[in-house]
């Protein structure tokens, strides 16, 4: 099954390389030429336009930043037949309503649409260990399973279009929530000059522990958040999406609103492109200033 990957950012490039390593015939496209060139240097075939990549492939994976990027890529080529008979798989983190709207537009142009957002980052993409949460037609899901199995050990269909997107947002709300609450507890431990390893030891033995705490611990302790797999600006995007969906679903948004404020503060401090755990810097600012 010839597969196109549109969007060669952090995730798109890793997904394309994984599929190629799995023996698939992969074609890529990226809006900016630099990333296409970098992909060619890594052995991937790249096309100059999204329309060319879609036309040459049976399945097209969209690994783009947000719904705006998807609309620009799919619907602004000027070629009304570009999606006719094609299969489009949306893998980014977008709102359920956005996914349904894009699905409707794809269908109106004669294409088939499935959403398949993923939990996990670059190492998981590299090793085919992403958690894939699909939404859409069951037969189309079955048809695409061989590609999904190259990326995920247990790709699951959650339900209809929008339900996969909602599941993904539910997961990412946990990333934001766990990161914020752990950062605050660690901040208090450090302010009180308690031994961090003693705190972690007790936490690891308790029902409150989550693996992400240890995974990011070095970053909190060193205040070094570089080399982001999942940058803070994307977490902010997802927190905003969750808040919007929560509002529409009549859930209380006070907590997610507070987390959004903290993400925004961390971005204003210059951490937007760094690892999302830099949220710590907004929640636990140094009382003596950044230089101390
Ligand atoms: P990224 O590194 O920022 O890459 C974004 C991609 O979208 C780039 O290829 C970019 O092209 C393209 N793009 C942005 N605006 C565009 C537009 N208007 N038209 C066409 N292309 C556009 O993002 P990423 O980390 O790969 O994430 C991609 C999606 O997956 C996001 O929805 C993210 O939330 C989700 N996700 C990310 C991770 C992760 O760990 N990074 C994990 C799970 C899910 P240019 O190069 O031209 O800017």
Describe this structure in words.
It is a single chain. By secondary structure, the protein is α/β, with parallel strands linked by helices. The chain folds into two domains: 3-160, NAD(P)-binding Rossmann-like Domain (Rossmann fold); 166-283, N-(1-d-carboxylethyl)-l-norvaline Dehydrogenase, domain 2 (Orthogonal Bundle). 55% of the residues lie in helices and 11% in strands. The chain has 13 helices and nine strands. The chain has helices spanning 10-21, 33-41, 50-56, 67-75, 96-108, 122-127, 138-151, 163-191, 196-204, 211-222, 232-248, 254-271, 279-283, and strands at 3-6, 26-29, 45-46, 59-62, 87-90, 112-115, 118-119, 131-135, 156-159. The strands form two sheets. It has a six-stranded parallel β-sheet, with helices on both faces. Strands 7-8-9 form a three-stranded mixed β-sheet, with helices on both faces. Helix 11 (232-248) packs antiparallel against helix 12. The longest helix has 29 residues, at 163-191. The N and C termini lie far apart (56 Å). NADP nicotinamide-adenine-dinucleotide phosphate is lined by residues 7-12, 30-32, 35, 63-66, 68-69, 72-73, 92-93, 118, 121, 229-230, 234.
